[in-house]
Structure formats: structure tokens, C-alpha cells
Amino acid sequence: MSKSSYNSRPKYILIPLFGMGLFVVLYILASLNYPGGSWNDVNHKGFSFWNNYLCDLLDKYAINGALNSGRYYARAALGVLCLSLLFLWLNLHKLVTESINTKIMTYSGVLALLTTFFLASNTHDIIVRISGVFGVVAILSLTVEQFKMHYIKLGLLGVTCIVIFLINYYVYETGFYLKCLPIIQKFTFAAFMVWFSILNAMLYCKSDKV
Fold first, then answer.
1. What phi-psi label fits residue 175: left (phi over 0), alpha (psi between -120 and 50 degrees) or beta?
2. Are 146 and 101 in contact (CB under 8 A)?
3. CA-to-CA distance for 76 and 26, rounded, in angstroms?
């Protein structure tokens, strides 16, 4: 790979990668400013990595009843993440062969991300279910395309993400091993962000300056 070829690639393609990094930074700030309380211990001081959900940081009031000053960071993080992944999803068709399935992948992914914007509203459970349905369709469609393009390892990573997501959703809906859900949720986020980061890197490597 020549240096000129590397320099010719548009850097804006890496917006999702930078957005995911900023999401992590903002969520750390949100957790540091969270007053306290979790579903296992209302009186716990500050944010508990093991017992608090990421969504707890979005609420106006913390679980202990105090005003949550960390919500501004968390809501900014959510907006940054959704916008970054929206940009990524609108460009993922460039990595696969155009087909009806590709269109389904794009539209369902966009709808999932647009729905997720409203996660900080008072309709949290409904938003999770709606965005979850669109998200599963989008992810399954993308994974199918990856296997069709012989991206076997990437496809297997996609399958892993889907399985983890479904476990997360099953626990959320049934309450089975609910105490483990905060950790499962964070592990789910981490797995998807690794997958998306690889996809963004691939998109960047295949991009050319127009």
C-alpha cells in the first residue's frame, strides 16, 4: 500500500470509530457524575459497574432519588453513538453486493438507530422492543451478506453478537438471572462496538477519494 493511496482516503469515513470512542468517554463522565443507587442496592454511592444498567445514567433522577447530573453526558453519548452508527450503516452497503437483502439491512438498521434516539424518554421498554426488532433484522441481514462475501470470521463475529444480544433480550424479558443483566448488557455493547469498529476499518480501507 503506497503512502499516497493511504492519504487519498477520506478521513470522514472514520466518523463512526471516533464517535464510538467519544461515546465511551462521555459515558465514563456520566458514570462519574451519577449520584448513586442501583436495583440491587438503592443506597449504593455512585455508579456500580456490576449492578447499574447503562440506561440508568440517562434518567433525570438516580435510583436513590437524587437529581442525576450525569444524565447530560449520557444523553450526549447516546446521541453521538446513534449518529455515528447511522453514518456507518448508511455506508455498509459498499462492503457487500447490492440486493434486496442489502436494502432490508440498510432500512431496518436506520429505523433501529432512529428509534434508539428516544431511549431517554419515558417509554424506555417500548423503545427497547421496537429498536430490538429492527436491530435483529438489520444484523441478521448484514451477517448473511458477510457469509455470502466469504467474510467468514467477520460473519462468525456477527453471529456471536446476535447470540449475545438474544441472551440479553431473553433475560430482560423473562427476568431469568436478572442480576447478571447489567454485566451482560455491557458485554453486549463491547462485542457490538468491536464488530462495528472492524466494519468501519474495512470501509475505510476500501474507500477512495472522489
1. left
2. no
3. 7
The model's pLDDT over 45-84, given as tens digits with 9 standing for 90+, comes to: 999 999 999 999 999 999 999 999 999 999 999 999 999 9
- d(CA 90, CA 184) in angstroms, rounded, equals 28
Asked if the structure places residue 119 within a domain, the reply is yes
Query: Does residue 167 lie within any of the structural domains?
Result: yes
pTM of the model: 0.90
Is residue 4, in this structure, part of any structural domain at all? no
In a domain, 97, yes or no: yes
> Are residues 34 and 47 in contact, defined by beta-carbon separation less than 8 angstroms?
yes
C-alpha cell at 106: 440498510
16, 88 Cβ separation under 8 angstroms: yes
* 59: containing domain: 10-205
Q: How many C-beta neighbours within 10 Å does residue 143 have?
A: 22
Q: Are the C-beta atoms of 4 and 203 separated by less than 8 Å?
A: no
